[in-house]
Amino acid sequence: MRENELLSIENLEIKYILRRSTVNAVNGISFTINKGERVGLVGETGAGKTTTALSILKLIPEPPGKITNGKIMLGGRNLMETSEKEMRKIRGNDVSMVFQDPMTSLSPVMTVGDQIMEVVLLHNDMSKSEAALRAREMLELVGIPGERYAEYPHQFSGGMKQRVLIAIALACNPKLLIADEPTSALDVTIQAQVLELIAELREKFNMSLLLITHDLGVVSETCDRIMIMYAGRIVESGPVRTVYKNMQHPYTIGLFNSLPRLDIDTDRLEPIKGMMPDPANLPAGCAFHQRCPQADERCAQELPPLTEMENGHCIACFHAIDKERSDG
Amino acid sequence: MLRYIIKRLIYMVITLLATVVFLFTLMEFVPGDPALVVLGEGATEENIVAIHKELKLDDPYIVRLTRYIGNLIQGDMGNSYKTRQPIAPALFARLPLTMTIAVWGIIVGTIIGLIAGVVSAVKQYSLFDRILTFISLFGASAPSFWLAMLFVLIFTLKLGWLPATGSYTLKHWILPVATIGLQASATITRMTRSSMLEVIRQDYVRTARAKGQTQFKVVISHGLRNAFIPILTVICTRINGYLGGTVLVESVFAIPGLGNYVLDGVKTMDTPVVLSGVVFICFMCTIVTFLTDMAYAFIDPRIKSTYGFGVKRARKRAGLVAKATEGGNV
Q1: What is chain A's alpha carbon radius of gyration, rounded to the nearest angstrom?
Q2: Angle at B290 between CA B104 and CA B308, to 5 degrees
Q3: Could you tell me which chain A residue has the CA closest to the CA of B324?
Q4: ipTM value
Q5: What is the pTM of this model?
Q6: pLDDT single digits (tens) A19-50
Q7: A80 to chain B nearest CA, in Å?
Q8: Are A224 and A240 in contact (CB under 8 A)?
Q9: Does pLDDT of A119 surpass 70?
Q10: CA angle B330, B317, B297 (to 5 degrees)
Q11: What's the mean per-residue pLDDT of chain A?
Q12: Distance from C-alpha of A80 to C-alpha of A50, rounded to nearest angstrom
């Protein structure tokens, strides 16, 4: 294990075993997150982003979910062998998560202050009044007046609720913050504020960040490194600048083409043709081959491995790898 | 807070008044001459006229209704035709018996129902869940008198462990309370299970888990607290049901409770007993409903804050926290 490595995931496989079918949500992904690093995980709905994130906290609903293979190492500890009791000490303390929908992620019958206090009390040896004080500080830190400690979630707007959730996540000073589409449910104007807040606090506490999103623009602004996920696999990853300048995987190229650009006069956006394959019934070979303009027979039979090209830029595509090699 | 209470109280009075008028009117349609009930067979023409005069039976409907309501407000529920005794003391003498069965039955039922419901929701589709579902379906569909008789058959006649009737020591209460308790628990289990199933899939339960909270606390303080309103509603309707509806159980165990008293009134065409008995039961039901409404407000802050409850407490708390901050700075 490298010195500054915080999280390392190796060959992680997660399946949802249902009565009639097995959904292959995550199919052998490996990645690491260093201390203080900001990593963006991008992909469309159903690509397995949230499942990956939940697996780090071991919060996959089980059954039907099951981690069938792989290793999750957090700061040198193998989470696969950690007991539930030990996991509880990690959740909220070492690794925190901000969820997608702030409207439903707070308990409606508890005051927001008490909900922050709860996590403080769980992981710190504090009296209730000390914890309440800390909760109040956290509220103020995320930009909510401390007087609103005793109010209930229904008295807050969506953006404010997300701030409260961020306060909960950061209350115990975690080493890793996982933000699972933290802005998807918010207004565009609020999105920027919330992202800024996350970026600012991450800096302040020097945490690692795993930002899950499907917004490529957000990643370019907030992250050091990007991982693009498709049908439960990472298809391309690398430093944000490198990937954005020199994207290689046809799926990544498709993603960027489906974004409007300011510098080019576009009449029509180019969506990627077709749909993501049913994760319960993945095709052989590269999962993207049915939609890929470059696909040939090899793509339909063989699974392209994630191969490092240069400066940590990894690609899982035969064509891109061949091209890169012949260029190099 | 005060506004909420006043509003609920006004509803309560309106409900009661409407019930009294409705029941009184309904009793008007009972066939037969009350004087015959009072005098029994072999009444003479003269006596009948005398009774009519004494009980003011010939007054117009509206006059008798107003008089009845007026008397009710003063606590006078009228006299029984049969015994010529005032009804109110008789009702109050029987109230403790019915209350004992109903209250203990509900307590037992709530405890069993909550535990069973929560466990079967958390362990959905497990063997335990399936067995409980079967038992609660059985408990909810079995008529109470049948259940009562089954208990008597097993525990009194076959095993001889518990008495079915007789003077009221703890032992005598077990069977009637168990009957009511089992029946109440069945409904409460089912409501708890379905309400909990809905709640434990909510995002805020996942948030609580992500905080590192223990499974027990996640289920109880985040799950059950949020699932409690529909459960409370069921408990309330059960209490209301048992206040007046333990008649069948009272009959089987020969308990001279409220239900039996009213039932006797029905049998002997004793209309004032039936009327006042039912009005009294309604009165208790409205009180229970009122208390439930109050409880809702304490469980759900959304109801509470609509009426400005708890704001004081919240401010006080925030104030306390504020003081702590100042203290910290000094």
Answers
A1: 21
A2: 125
A3: A133
A4: 0.84
A5: 0.80
A6: 888 888 888 889 999 988 999 999 888 888 88
A7: 17
A8: yes
A9: yes
A10: 175
A11: 87
A12: 18
Q: Using CA coordinates, name the residue in chain B closest to A107.
A: B204
The answer to whether residues B284 and B243 touch, using CB atoms and an 8 Å cutoff, is yes
Q: What is the C-alpha R_g of chain B?
A: 25
Structure tokens at B80: 């029984």
Distances (CA, A) of B28 to A92, B61, B98: 69, 8, 28
Instruction: Tell me if B302 and A97 make a contact (CB, 8 A cut-off).
Output: no
Closest among B29, B10, B7 to B18, alpha carbons compared: B10
Which residues, 6+ apart, have CB-to-CB distance to A62 below 8 Å?
none
Nearest of A245, A222, A224, A226 to residue A235 by alpha carbon: A226
Cβ-count burial of A143 within 10 angstroms (0-12 exposed, 13-18 middle, 19+ buried)? Answer: middle
Q: Torsion over CA of B140, B143, B146 and B148, rounded to 10 degrees? A: 70
- Asked if residues A73 and A7 have their Cβ atoms less than 8 Å apart, the reply is yes
Least CB-CB distance to A107: which of B209, B210, B222?
A: B222
Using CA atoms, how far apart are residues A60 and A49, in angstroms rounded to an integer?
12
Nearest to A144 by CA among A124, A115, A120, A118: A115
Was domain B91-299 assigned CATH 3.40.190.10?
no
Q: What is the pLDDT of residues A262-308, one digit of tens each?
A: 777 777 777 888 888 888 888 888 888 888 888 888 888 888 888 88
List the pLDDT tens digit at each of the 330 positions of chain B: 777 888 888 988 999 999 999 999 988 888 877 777 777 777 788 888 888 888 888 888 899 899 999 999 888 888 888 888 888 898 888 888 888 888 899 999 999 999 999 999 988 888 888 998 888 888 888 888 888 888 888 888 888 888 777 666 778 888 888 888 888 899 899 999 999 999 988 889 999 989 988 889 899 888 898 898 899 999 998 888 888 767 788 888 888 888 888 888 888 888 889 899 889 888 888 998 888 888 888 888 877 766 655 555 555 555 554 444 443 333
Q: Show the tokens assigned to A20.
A: 């009639």
**Residue B315: what pLDDT?**
54
Here the tokens at position B184 are 């109440």
Residue window 60-89, chain A: list those with CB within 8 Å of chain B.
87-89
| Mean pLDDT computed over A175-202 | 87
Which helix (H) or strand (E) segment is A23 a member of? strand A22-34
Of A91, A106, A154, the CB nearest to B204: A106
DSSP-derived secondary structure letter, A155: G
Collect all residues with Cβ–Cβ distance below 8 Å to A50 and sequence separation of at least 6: A100, A180, A181, A212
Give residues 210 to 229 of B whose Cβ lies within 8 Å of A.
Answer: 210-214, 221-222, 225-226
Residues of chain B with CATH 1.10.3720.10: 91-299
- Burial annotation A171-200 (CB, 10 A radius, 16+ → b, else e): bbebbbbbbbbbbebbeeebbebbbebbbe
Write down the pLDDT at residue B324. 44
